[in-house]
Amino acid sequence: MPNRVYLDWNATTPLRAEARRAMLAAWELIGNPSSVHAEGREARRLVEDARAALATAVGALPRNVVFTSAGTEANALALSPGLRGPSGGPVERLLVSAIEHASVLAGGRFPADRMGHIRVTRAGVVDLDHLKALLKDRPPSLVSIMVANNETGALQPIAEAAGIVHEAGGLLHVDAIQALGKIAFNINAVGADLATISAHKIGGPKGIGALVVAEGLTGLEPVLRGGGQELNRRAGTENVPGIAGFGAAVNAALQALPEDTERMATLRNRLEKDLKGFAGATVFSEDAERLPNTILFTAPGLKAETAVIGFDLEGIAVSSGSACSSGKVQPSHVLSAMGFDPAVAQGAVRLSLGWSTEPEDINRALEAWRKLGNTLLRG
User: How many CB atoms lie within 10 A of CB 359?
Assistant: First the structure.
């Protein structure tokens, strides 16, 4: 579609040229990466090069990167009873923040009666005092907290949470899917034991993700059983083109990270200021540290479904929050957890920027918002 403006980067990103080239080259290969002949070894080389690239990007060892079909599968693999760290017993419970992605809220392989939810503040940040209370005098727990919320962009106090969890003998899993490529992330620096990442949020292909585990973690049971691929952690022939594209995308994203972060923040701040200057718009998690590219906003009387359609008709792609609801526009569980009334949550619209967003795109979005505001909010 000509003259479209894409402001839904948190849902998915365009494919980077580097990833496309890597995938095209991989599709030319014949071999199965588990085969020992020359053709198989060539495919294996691409897989291991990408594994090393991901490991470098997040501060892990290559042997601790497990490729999966997507971030959702990586989350399911991570949320496993019986995980053990270098010290301490196996985890017996799962605690997740109330603002997690649906694949984490589903609990993985933990039964519902062994799950608990961590409250968040009005700003959309995990309540660490509540986390402490949930861990006190209880068996070791696996705790799952996303690094950055996909709807509000609010960054979570991961390092502080890791200290609390480890002191209680537990383990910490972080969903870093929205963080990778937008802010610096290192699994060791934040003290996480497991981290989930995904290719299509950083300019890689859809349908490929990874789980990164800290050195010394044991007890990770495969979800998919069969062959011995991925060091016996995930059976099934590896998606060589997808993995090659993932590796190329992460290299490109990390190389451009400082410049892209500054540029997106500048554009986001301008967009946010002008949005708030019209029709009484408010921004969620405004008082929290946020991703440099994300705005979730509403205005009195705004209906998200109508607004998303209105923006679309003006040539602007935006969303009402998470894209993982089968195309449905529905009230945000994130805003509900933050304590907002359902009527307010139903009016939330998300705009998310990326590396190719231009100042003219911001102009177009603001022009559309002024038109929609006059039409939708003022009759």
Answer: 12
